[in-house]
Amino acid sequence: MTTAIPSVVSLSHINKTFGAAGTGSVALSDISMEIGRGDFVSLIGPSGCGKSTLLRLIGDLTEPTGGTIQVNGKPAVQARLDRDYGMVFQAPVLFDWRTVEENVRLPLELFGQDRATQASKTAEMLELVDLADFGRYRPYELSGGMQQRVAIARALAFSPLLLLMDEPFGALDEMTRERMNSEVLKIWQRTGITVIFVTHSIPEAVFLSTRVVVMSARPGRITKLVEVDLPQPRGLVTRESSRYFNLITEVREALRAGEGPMPEGGLSSVEVTVAEGGIG
Amino acid sequence: MRQLRRYLPALLILISVLVGWEVAVRAFNVKGFILPAPSAIWAALVTNWTDGYGIFPSARVTLIEALGGLAIGTLLGVATAVVVSRFPRSRDTVLPLAVAVNAVPIIAFAPLANSWFGALSPVSKMAIAAALVFFPIMINLLRGLTEVDRSALELMRSYAAGPTAVTVKLRAPNALPYFLTGLKIATTLSLIGAVVGEYFGGLTETLGRVVVAGASALRFDVTWSAILVVSVMGIVMYLLVIGLERVLIPWHPSVRGGRSP
Predict the structure, then answer these.
(1) pTM for the whole thing?
(2) β-pair partners for A43
(3) Domains contained in chain B, number
(4) What is the residue range of B230's domain?
(5) B95 located within any domain
(6) Which residue of B lies nearest to A82 if distances are taken between CA atoms?
(7) How does A90-100 read in b/e, with b if 16+ C-beta sit within 10 Å?
(8) Could you read off the pLDDT of B120-172 as tens digits, one per residue?
């Protein structure tokens, strides 16, 4: 591994307060983290722990109250302007007035790529998510899982540096979710893209990630980093291995430790802040 | 066939109302100046189509006035909505004024419009129609342009898309169904504006004048036949907008569900 670019995302002492300073609610408190190139990092925690906010901060959809965010050595806003982010939300956010193909093509159109490139890239992406035969369908003609795959294809169409996924499979049934997890892993391995993934499903986080970031609420902060050393490529065997279950237990216990009734500031001793050498 | 079955109840009700009307007028010997029978209205329409009151040439003039007003009002409404959505700060200046203007009974200005733009000129009628059309177009379009899914806006933000790109790729297509809803309301309003404008003077050969002239000559069958023609024009314009919806927004739930109010 080269040392020239130590990390893709570098968070240092991030704070985020909503509302007026002093009286507002603290969403995130003193978050520091490094995410390496090609990492698959899951953010997990109870509702209100700020995991989505953290993702949105990295993607420059909102700004921190304090601290700095560096993406590929640049401020987050510059990374956004450089089109380094592919975003996938909980809802597929597809445009009904466009066909599946045209939805995937949207970012390429916006970036002014020529028509031939648009067409070939779109076809390639639909192939990648196994929807090659559905290009001419309208989004509402597809199932929820298929719609989300279109959203992933659209997010990857312009080969962004980072894939930011905000509970992308939260609205899907368990079966579809497991299938989508395998799909995402396949895509991650094929493209080598760095993924930041927000979820509140423990098995999902463990199965997908190289690293799970466990967060607690009020104020949102990182309570534990779990390195997931399950061998790649992962599949059914992974889901049945004892190591997988052990890791699930580890994440679950970390979550429980984070939510328990504790005195004010009772977590500060357990708080883990990985600033250096946190590359997976 | 399925279409026919769907609208059959409505058709049956319409026919029974007409039959009931005809029977009642004859049975109770209702005087023509109170309520002419449907058959009498139809006869008046046929005899005065080109001769007599000249309903057909009148309808042409009225239609041109209504369409002119519809076009002008739509253009102004669209322009205002686009500007306000593009510059959100202008919203608090423009909207209260637009609402205030809309609260004014615009019809009451019809005699004034005649003196401003010339009673004989179709422009005076277009002006009233345009004033009526403006508000529903503007307010509906503005809603469509501004009530955009938050995630969709964030998606565009993640692409670093500028305001123009967001308007063209997201806001405009999102607004199209709202605009067409406004247009449906506007078609009827444009006819009302034109006809009421005509009541207060202008060329003799307009439907508004036929309505007034028929009434003052106690030829209520003529008045009714003119009203019938205005109604048919209104229905046709409305249906045209529904046809436009089928073409422009086949993806919208109201259209793909096969139902359009």
Answers:
(1) 0.84
(2) A198, A213
(3) 1
(4) 47-256
(5) yes
(6) B160
(7) bbbbbbbbbbb
(8) 889 999 999 999 999 999 999 999 999 999 999 999 999 999 999 999 999 99
